[in-house]
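Researcher: Here's my situation. A collaborator sent me these components and asked whether they could plausibly form a single complex. I don't have experimental data yet, so a predicted model of the whole assembly would be a useful starting point for our discussion.
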Amino acid sequence: MAQYSFYRPWAAASWIPLDQFRREMDTLFDRFGGAPARPGDWRGVFPAVNLYETVDAYHLTAELPGVEPGEIHLSMEGSTIVLEGERKIDYASQEETSLHRREREGGAFRRAFELPAAVDADQVEATHRNGVLMLRLPKTAEAKPRQISVRAS
Amino acid sequence: MDERLRAREKQELPEESTRPGLVFRPDIDILENRDGFVIYADLPGADDKSVEVRFERGMLMLDARPATDLEPSWTPLHAEYRLGSYHREFRVSEDIDPDGVVAKMSNGVLELSLPRSAERRPRMIQVQAG
């Protein structure tokens, strides 16, 4: 297992206009698997994940280049989704091969996310294409916003 | 010992200014074997059609412009990575045969095989009994 790490801190993250969002989300969005060094410090934990919301679902995307779909295991417990697996990079078994540069790392990963609202575990759809995992996590009927019509009296 | 796999921050290329959107420098591994070199590049989101590999004046240029699957209706709640294209250049050894370069995409990883020209490959010399 490679001992060196290529993690570099994110440059002053002006690119996320979500800082206030994130602070809010951190209370709702626990990263048990990531075991952040500081609360809200998700940086450098593999795989990097983005979360989006629509009226009726959450969409979670993760960059998992080089991971076979069969090596990704997903499970749900309550509103927590667990993503685990292994990224296999094995050059040692190749004969007469020397490594000139090594930036890609292999190994096991596990991350868990608690979603902000309840989702229907039976209806979760997962696709893995071109090294990107996409999950559609539909909200339960109770978690969806409802329109309340205002009647004139 | 912390064996947890870590994600690297995508390295943005500051000099890229003529294209729209962000351009990242993909993570790579470079191996050398008897036949030549093999480069692996992480290009998550890219398929074989969105990757371009050019060999020009001793430089190997790698470009990828992945299509995004995001819908405009999706509201971002949490972002750990950014989306954009990829670019990286390699100065390639003179003994590489440009016509023999083979590029393959699998699960968002590019595998580039750069074979040595036949005359530059190591050869075994038979030692004959005299």
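Model: Some features of this prediction you could bring to your collaborator: Chain A is about 5% helix and 35% strand. The first strand of chain A starts at residue 49 and ends at 53.
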